[in-house]
Amino acid sequence: MKRLLTSILILAIGISAAAQNSFGYENPIIKGFNPDPSVCRVGDDYYLVTSSFQYFPGVPLYHSKDLVNWEQIGHVLTRESQLPLKDAHSWGGIFAPTIRHHNGRFYMITTNISGKGNFIVSTDDPRGEWSDPMWVDMPGIDPSLFWDEDGKCWYCGAGNDGIILCQVNPDTGEILSKPRMIWYGTGGRYPEAPHIYKKDGWYYLLIAEGGTEFGHGVTIARSKYVDGPYTPAPHNPILTHFKQKTQNSQIQGTGHADIIQAHDGSWWLVCLGFRIQGGQHHLMGRETFLAPVRWDTNAWPVVNGTGDFALEMNVPTLPQKPFEPRQARNEFDSQLGAEWSWIRNPEPSRYVVEDGALRMYGTAADLDESSVSPTFVGFRQQDINFTAQTCLSLRNAHTGDKAGMTVYMDSGSHYDICLKKDKGGRWAVEVKYAMGVLNHVIEEPFSGNSIYLRITGEPDFYKFWYSVDGKDFKMLGINHTRYLSSETVGGFMGIMIGLWAQSPSGRGYAQFEYFDYL
Ligand code: 6LW
Question: What is the mean pLDDT of the chain?
Answer without folding.
Answer: 95
